[in-house]
Amino acid sequence: MKNTFISIFLSLGLCALLSTPQAGRAQLIYSSGHGDIGVGYDAVSQEFEPHWHLGAGAVVDGSPLALEEEYAAADLNAQTSATRSSSTGLSSIIGVPDGTTIYAAGSSTYQPNLGFAVEELSPLDWTGDITLSLTGFSVPSGGHFALYTTNLAGTSVVDRIFSTFSPTSTDFSNSFTMTPGDHVHFQWGFTTLGTYNLELTWTGTHVLDGTISTTDTFTVQVVPEPSTWGLLLLSLGAAALWSARRRNSNLPSSENAR
């Protein structure tokens, strides 16, 4: 009997480990608070420097940051489990009917509150705006991602910015521009659970170095709400306990007596 209970607890521990989205990943997890996908510029290498820029209070691996921090694109993943109804008019770029429940991010309501920033770039160093484009992606099977804005009444999509459902649409360019020193927020929508790898490219004209273009990949994980994980583990634990008891009751009486 002792060995049976040890096996149950080991099984539950393994289930919890495998169920945790961070399992087997080296990246830190950014789950809430304000942050940006930002970019700086290295004049020596003449390259943009894409990165995560998180504000004080942003939650990383379950703990709020005491001060703002920056991370390389590959060192951190954003993670969301927030849900909302897909906005009217969004179906053409996200691939599900309007009103469908989707996963969301990009505001104080739908965490993490993730935006975009070129605040580290001086307007004096650049001719015109910086263009940020979605140039590649990998998404879960059957899943799609869209970056967009809606009007105040929520009746139609005002701006269609990024889409993995219709990336070659002529209705929008899968890019947007920011003035150096600027900072913007949009609405993020995801249709299914899973990992979304978004290849982003920054392009601008430096006053001394000419045209600069740099690409990096940022990852967003869409996971179930924590309560869903808890119910799953509880169900697995109950099933394991029931199975163990049934196996034990089927042992010969001499075995049960031990």
Order of helices and strands: HEEEEEEEEHEEEEEEEEEEHH
Main sheet record:
8 strands, mixed
DSSP strand (E) fraction? 35-45%
User: Biggest sheet: strands side by side, in what order?
Assistant: 5-4-1-7-18-17-11-14
Low-confidence stretches: 1-25, 228-244, 253-258
By secondary-structure content and strand pairing, the structural class works out as alpha+beta
Mean pLDDT: 84
Fold and architecture overview:
- With about 260 residues, the protein is α+β, with helices and mostly antiparallel strands.
- The chain folds into two domains: about 25-220, no CATH class; about 225-255.
- About 20% of the residues lie in helices and about 40% in strands.
- The chain has four helices and 18 strands.
- The strands form three sheets. The chain has an eight-stranded mixed sheet with strand order 5-4-1-7-18-17-11-14, with no helix packed on it. Strands 6-3-2-10-15 form a five-stranded mixed sheet, with no helix packed on it. The chain has a five-stranded antiparallel sheet with strand order 8-9-16-12-13, with no helix packed on it.
- A hairpin with a 3-residue loop joins strand 17 (about 195-205) and strand 18.
- Helix 1 (about 1-20) packs antiparallel against helix 3 (about 225-250).
- About 30% of the residues are buried.
Key features?
258 residues; alpha+beta; 4 helices; eight-stranded mixed beta sheet; globular; five-stranded mixed beta sheet
What are the SSEs and their pairings?
Blueprint: H1 2-19, E1 28-32, E2 34-42, E3 47-54, E4 59-60, E5 63-64, E6 69-72, E7 76-80, E8 83-85, H2 91-94, E9 101-105, E10 113-117, E11 130-138, E12 145-150, E13 157-163, E14 175-178, E15 183-184, E16 187-190, E17 194-206, E18 210-222, H3 226-249, H4 253-256
Parallel strand pairs: 1-7, 2-10, 7-18
Antiparallel strand pairs: 1-4, 2-3, 3-6, 4-5, 8-9, 9-16, 10-15, 11-14, 11-17, 12-13, 12-16, 17-18
